[in-house]
């Protein structure tokens, strides 16, 4: 297209079209709102310290930007603007200066631990790294001063802050809140003995829609600076009411919560999350029944996605209704599907005995995701059989499986497995892998 084509519409229209083309693929990454139907894709963009953050969508958008800039001089000028060039910055060390222009244009910033170095996770940490991070946050604070252009940052990943420097880093983050008005997604490692910091975060970043909290355990509370000594954070009264108020976490717009507890957990009773819809949690030991489950039950009326990331075979079962093969609670008094009446997507480990109860045709449930691999044909039939053979059970839109049995492709050949596949086609249920690709072709 020649430059003359630009005369057919105002430059503002062309600019809006080009920016839409450049950013449309990365919307699930930078805008944290998600639905049960795209939750798994959103989860693949979330680093939690153990998993790899997928950059496929971002790389695709960069290819689009570079292709568009070749069309004509005017398009190149738009695509090369400072706020379009570099939207995702990954920082593994703070010994190199990053310009103010790069910070202003970034929509996502990750402070990551380089392989083998451990500079953020407390192993061999050097004091200057924490000091460097505080300096970065102070620079961000200056970007929010009157007359400045502020920042476009929507997503901030700080999962590897050292425990010794945690307090001062959070103080710096809260101090920079005035320049981070676009921030909607925040990921933090938070020591369990420093839960008052969550109150400060909720006070300064009340517009968050996605929050990841990776808890770390520390023996001594004195390992952390006193938050109350900073005059920029809310002061805490010495009476019981003041201490209770400092532990209230209130996010009126938070939709997505990723929670990674340790053997000790925050007090979740004072968390106010009125629109919480998507929860990703790792159950750990005795805190499941004592802390996590009551929290989920309080938010059951709004939860649409429940992702139980069981990382070991000893993980505690999801619920007393039999989402695992054993339970220590009387299952006759509680029913999972009645409690979570608006649940649409569930991810959990599914034992050979399946569920003790199943949702009926009137339930909102749509998608089941198995967290353990399918190794044999018996695994396949145990997971899928109840959903296709009982007419009283809700017919799902999709079921997500993975594992060596699926990858070999032998599951399409014969016997009861073939009968299940035929019934899935008849019901219109899509059989997917975790990346969203179909294992079988639908008619």
Automatic annotation (TrEMBL):
InterPro entries: LRR_dom_sf (IPR032675). SUPFAM superfamilies: RNI-like (SSF52047). It comes from the Eukaryota. This is F-box domain-containing protein.
């Amino acid at each position: 297209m020649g430059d003359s084509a630009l005369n057919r519409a105002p430059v503002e229209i062309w600019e809006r079209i080009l920016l839409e083309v450049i950013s449309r693929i990365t919307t699930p990454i930078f805008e944290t709102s998600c639905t049960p139907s795209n939750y798994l894709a959103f989860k693949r963009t979330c680093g939690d310290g153990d998993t790899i953050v997928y950059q496929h969508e971002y790389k695709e958008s960069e290819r689009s930007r570079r292709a568009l800039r070749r069309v004509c001089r005017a398009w190149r000028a738009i695509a090369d603007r400072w706020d379009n060039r570099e939207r995702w910055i990954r920082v593994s060390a703070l010994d190199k200066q990053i310009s103010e222009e790069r910070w202003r244009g970034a929509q996502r910033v990750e402070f990551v631990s380089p392989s083998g170095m451990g500079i953020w996770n407390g192993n061999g940490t050097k004091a200057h790294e924490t000091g460097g991070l505080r300096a970065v946050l102070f620079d961000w604070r200056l970007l929010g001063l009157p007359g400045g252009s502020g920042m476009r940052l929507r997503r901030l990943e700080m999962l590897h802050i050292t425990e010794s420097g945690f307090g001062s880093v959070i103080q710096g983050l809260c101090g920079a809140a005035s320049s981070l008005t676009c921030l909607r997604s925040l990921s933090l490692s938070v020591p369990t003995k420093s839960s008052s910091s969550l109150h400060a975060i909720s006070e300064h970043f009340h517009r968050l829609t996605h929050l990841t909290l990776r808890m770390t355990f520390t023996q001594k509370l004195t390992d952390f600076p006193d938050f109350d000594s900073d005059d920029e954070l809310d002061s805490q009264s010495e009476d019981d009411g003041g201490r209770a108020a400092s532990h209230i976490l209130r996010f009126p717009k938070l939709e997505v919560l990723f929670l990674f507890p340790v053997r000790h957990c925050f007090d979740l009773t004072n968390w106010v999350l009125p629109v919480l819809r998507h929860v990703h949690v790792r159950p750990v030991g005795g805190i499941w029944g004592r802390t996590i489950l009551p929290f989920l039950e309080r938010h059951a009326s709004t939860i649409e996605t429940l992702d139980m990331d069981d990382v070991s075979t000893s993980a505690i079962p999801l619920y007393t209704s039999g989402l695992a093969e054993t339970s220590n609670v009387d299952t006759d008094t509680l029913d999972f599907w009645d409690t979570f009446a608006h649940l649409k997507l569930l991810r959990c480990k599914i034992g050979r005995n399946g569920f003790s109860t199943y949702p009926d045709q009137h339930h909102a449930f749509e998608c089941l995701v198995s967290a353990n691999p399918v190794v044999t044909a018996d695994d396949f039939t145990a997971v899928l059989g109840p959903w296709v053979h009982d007419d009283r059970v809700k017919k799902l839109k999709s079921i997500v499986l993975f594992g060596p049995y699926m990858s070999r492709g032998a599951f399409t050949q014969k016997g009861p497995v073939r009968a299940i596949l035929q019934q899935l086609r008849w019901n219109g249920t899509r059989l997917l892998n975790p990346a969203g690709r179909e294992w079988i072709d639908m008619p």
